Amino acid sequence: MRDRSRVSMSAASRTAVIVTAALAVAFGLSGCASGDATSTAGGGTGGSPSLAERFAASSGAFAQNSTPADSFDPADCPPVEIRQGASTLSVTAASRDPATAELRYQGTIAQTARECRVAGPTLTIKVGVQGRIILGPAGGPGQMDVPLRLALVQEGPSPKTIWTKFYNVPVIIPEGQAHVNFMHIEEDLTVPKPNADTLSAYVVYIGFDPLAAARQAPKRPPRKPPAPRR
């Protein structure tokens, strides 16, 4: 009888090597990096706009809604951080044995951006996320949803979530393409304007949230019992 643990480790190792190599090539070509709204790193796939370009294109309308009398230092805009443990996404093919399940897609977050404005008593933060989906050995072309969560947290001895929202970001993977970028921009993260001390403790966290996606998935209706024979 073959040692199943050795087989599982071999399959997992091959998958890790394939995905690591694909990620290295993909990000080596794109040059994506984390940054703020002024970052110009990272480009789209197939001529699609980068996160910085999308931010620049929509900054005019965003700024028009601000109140000129309310001065706001851009340096005070809460930073964006990738939540620990939520920086990568792994989607595997269905398998009764999770240890031998083949990888379909690997997702990573490559670049972030943020911008703030004040309108009277409210603070609005525009947050952008750009990442990449890499096909694994069991992946293929088609559409998938990237489960993404944003959260505004007031850090401290007892962290407090001020605002949070979950998104299913649709991504189309064309035929013959091994990786594709995805992008999401939230323009209406609006909360009451805090005082300076409270604002300095604010952090915008981003990350993948596959558990929330699983909870939102439609449940299959229970099977009807067979009709009794007459």
Describe, in plain words, how this protein is organized in 3D.
The protein has one domain (20-214). Helix content is 23%, strand content 38%. It is globular, with a radius of gyration of 21 Å. The longest helix is centred in the N-terminal third of the chain and has 27 residues, at 4-30. The protein is built from 4 helices and 8 strands; from the N terminus they run ααβββββββαβα. It has 230 residues and is an alpha+beta fold. β3 (103-119) and β4 (122-135) form a beta hairpin. The strands form 2 sheets. Strands 1-8-5-6 form a 4-stranded mixed beta sheet, covered by helices on one side. It has a 4-stranded antiparallel beta sheet with strand order 2-3-4-7.
User: What is Rg?
Assistant: 21 Å
Low-confidence spans:
1-46
**Overall pLDDT:** 76
Envelope shape: globular
Strand order of the largest sheet: 1-8-5-6
Share of β-strand residues:
35-45%
Task: State the distance separating the first and last CA atoms.
Answer: 49 Å
* Helicity range: 10-25%
> What is the assembly state of the chains in this entry?
single chain
Number of E strands: 8
The number of helical segments is: 4
Order of helices and strands: HHEEEEEEEHEH
The structure class reads alpha+beta
- Number of self-contained structural domains: 1
Q: Biggest sheet: strands, sense, closure?
A: 4 strands, mixed
